[in-house]
Design brief:
By secondary structure, the protein is of the alpha+beta class. About 30% of the residues lie in helices and about 25% in strands. The chain contains eleven helices and 19 strands. A seven-stranded mixed beta sheet has the order 1-2-19-18-17-3-4, with helices on both faces. A five-stranded antiparallel beta sheet has the order 12-16-13-14-15, with helices on one face. It has a four-stranded parallel beta sheet with strand order 6-5-10-11, sandwiched between helices. About 45% of the residues are buried.
Length: about 400
């Protein structure tokens, strides 16, 4: 049973004072509750270790896809294949951050990989800032959690320049390069998250600016611009697959910008390989029966399993099947045309009310922070963010 520590929830007014405006779901229920999941120090360490090991496995799996030209099998849009290859082959295309979704890890249940949100993961602001604020507002030790996200991001921004673990020589190699940060207009959560990352880059030592995506201009020969100002880096909180499908001309321009070395895009295009849920099948092929993995195939399994699609989001187009093929639960959505995979079903840890908890472990060069999503059998866009506290 998941142990919860009941606390005073943050008020809407307080949440808005720290720039969280998405605190209430469309059904008028709070997105951020007043409970924290209690975990032990050893459980926190296990989440950290799992994220680090899984990332190394993803590196090997991505290389396997590239070496064997398996882009179609994992659902990579054809107009992004070259840009994925180019970004993979050059070390300057540094992966800034991602989030592993994991089952287990608490209540004695083993950690199992559900998927890797490697390109534009949500809940970054909640995990880094809001759960810290919950501890602070309730008079608890703010250090009593696995949460080094902000500092890890700052260090990883510096690695864009030094390209290795030691960032002490950032100032020696930094040449005044600028990062332009962009989100889509009209989405306060994305904008706040993007500006949070911008602030981390600013503190890391970069010159930065912000522009909505429709305010940015692109040139194959000159790079990325806001007005007349040119930027060496462009961070976009826009999924690569959306660019491929909805903005194919932009995908071609970005391919040439990268090829001509006129700008570096964050997160890199190769994170689309990590993002694809079809990579779970590749991982299982390369690491069969690995303790962190669930059996995954392109065909239904002869066991209770979950069908989902390579670039589905927020639990959409997900179906849980019993061993006999009967449907336990199903959600609709707009991702049906992406490659489907079938993953062995695993039960999430539950609280006394029967709510399921999925761990989200952020990765920025190493595992750096933990938060939980709480919901039903399928964690959809009504799942709630739940923080944690380390108690031994």
């Amino acid at each position: 049973m998941v142990k919860l520590l009941k606390l005073e929830p943050l008020t809407k007014e307080y949440l808005e004072s720290i720039n969280c405006y998405w605190h209430t779901d469309t059904d008028d229920t709070p997105y951020i509750g007043g409970e924290l999941v209690e975990i032990s120090q050893s459980e926190a360490q296990a989440y950290y270790d799992a994220a680090n090991e899984l990332y190394d496995m993803y590196i090997n799996a991505a290389q396997h896809v590239i070496d064997n030209n398996l882009f179609h099998e994992v659902g990579i849009p054809f107009n992004l294949v070259d840009i994925v290859k180019n970004s993979w082959e050059n070390d300057v295309h540094w992966h800034l951050y991602g989030r592993f979704d994991l089952a287990g890890g608490i209540d004695g249940k083993p950690i199992k990989l559900i998927e890797f949100n490697a390109d534009t993961p949500t809940s970054l602001y909640e995990s880094s800032i809001i759960q810290w604020a919950i501890l602070k507002k309730n008079g608890l030790n703010e250090a009593s959690q696995f949460n080094n996200i902000y500092d890890a991001l700052k260090e990883n921004f510096r690695r864009l320049v030094v390209l290795h673990s030691d960032t002490d020589e950032f100032a020696k190699y930094y040449e005044g390069w600028k990062i332009l940060f962009s989100s889509m207009a009209g989405n306060s959560e994305d904008e706040v998250t993007t500006k949070f990352l911008q602030n981390a880059a600013q503190e890391a030592g970069f010159h930065t600016d912000f522009a909505y995506a429709d305010e940015v201009s692109f040139s194959e020969e000159e790079g990325v611009f806001k007005g007349d100002e040119n930027f060496e880096f462009w961070f976009k909180l826009i999924p690569w697959e959306d660019i491929a499908i909805k903005e194919p001309n932009l995908a071609l321009i970005l391919k040439d910008i990268i090829k001509n070395q006129k700008a570096i895009i964050l997160n890199p295009a190769y994170t689309l390989l990590f993002q694809s849920k079809a990579m779970l099948k590749i991982l299982w092929d390369l690491y069969p029966s690995h303790p962190l993995l669930l059996e995954t195939a392109f065909e239904p399994l002869r066991k209770k399993c979950v069908k989902k699609h390579s670039f589905g989001r927020e639990g959409a187009n997900t179906t849980i099947f019993e061993v006999n093929g009967n449907i336990v639960e199903k959600t609709d959505g707009e991702y049906e045309n992406f490659v489907p995979i079938y993953q062995e079903y695993v039960e999430f840890p539950k609280d006394i009310s029967g709510n399921s908890y999925q761990a989200g472990v952020f990765f920025a060069y190493e595992g750096c922070g933990l938060g939980f999503r709480r919901g039903g059998l399928i964690l959809n866009n009504y799942a709630k963010f739940t923080g944690h506290i380390i108690k031994d």
